Amino acid sequence: MKFLLSRRFRIGLIVFSFVLFLASSIINAQTIPEDYGAKGALKDPRLTYEKALEYAIEDEYLAQERYNKVIQKYGQVFPFPKIQAAEKKHIEALTRLYNKANLSIPENQAKQYTAMPASIKVALQQAVQAEIDNIAMYNRFLEIKNLPPNATKVFTNLRDASKKHLVAFNFGLSQQQ
């Protein structure tokens, strides 16, 4: 019983608890499903307009949540705050398409798929890849036959915005080197 009260045991218990706490924040984020967001859109062999809307809003939810986590942990680091605000507008544009098509808007599940990045550099690297995937996703959507004209405009605008985000994230990453 004396070992339970020893200083060495108590310090070990504190260190173990701290490591467990840190690991749980990483573990709590689940792996993004293969059929979710841009990754899902790029793999879907039978892409429809309705499914494209679903993938698009999922991907915008993911981006917004990723940038929320970066700002939460590291503060107002360029270019995350400005692009986070843009993601909100992207979601609003997609919501208007959902409403026009009389479709139910999917619930935002992005929190369960995003983890706190280990560093600003890692966050920027992830953002670069996410924007590359996002651009490819919107390019694929623009190939859908009989796409409503308003959807063509929104998908084009969102793709073009992602191109600008990609430039900003690459610039931010170049400053980390």
UniProtKB/TrEMBL annotation:
Taking the record's annotation, the residue ranges forming a coiled coil are none
Q: Which InterPro entries match?
A: DUF2202, Ferritin-like, Ferritin-like_SF, Rr_diiron-bd_dom
Pfam families membership: Rubrerythrin
Which GO MF terms does the UniProt record name?
A: metal ion binding; oxidoreductase activity
* The Rubrerythrin diiron-binding domain, residue ranges: 52-169
Q: Which SUPFAM superfamilies match?
A: Ferritin-like (SSF47240)
Name the CDD domains on file. Ferritin_like_AB2
What is the protein named? Rubrerythrin diiron-binding domain-containing protein
Q: Which organism is it from?
A: Pontibacillus chungwhensis BH030062
